[in-house]
Amino acid sequence: MPGRSRRRPVKTTGTLPPEGSAAALDRSHPLPVRQWPITLVLGLAVVGLGVTWFGDFKYGLLLTGAALLVGAALRLVLPEVGMLAVRSRFTDVTVLGFLGAVIVLLTLIAQPDPWLRLSVLDNMGHLIGRQRR
Q: Are 107 and 113 contacting, i.e. CB atoms less than 8 angstroms apart?
């Protein structure tokens, strides 16, 4: 076809924002309030990381994992979540839920003195030479 170039366009056109990416509140509110879902999730994560840094790492990581789980729940139930919407609703909920659950699970089984004991981990420890308690 004459006149058509095979080069990529300089400007991307035709991309749509993800579903539910409109601000949670109208423009009469300041930006952090309009974007309260992402503000809440980031605030919880920052508090969790602060607790991890300055206090007990297990409580801090539980709070950080819980922040991701709260983000997944908000993305699932709210029609508009603003900047918390990155991809499709399914992808956002799946990724946030998986990462939050993994962080919480790893925190619960972290040594020393895990809050959750899994016999599979004890068996693996026994195989590599660790004595059972």
A: no
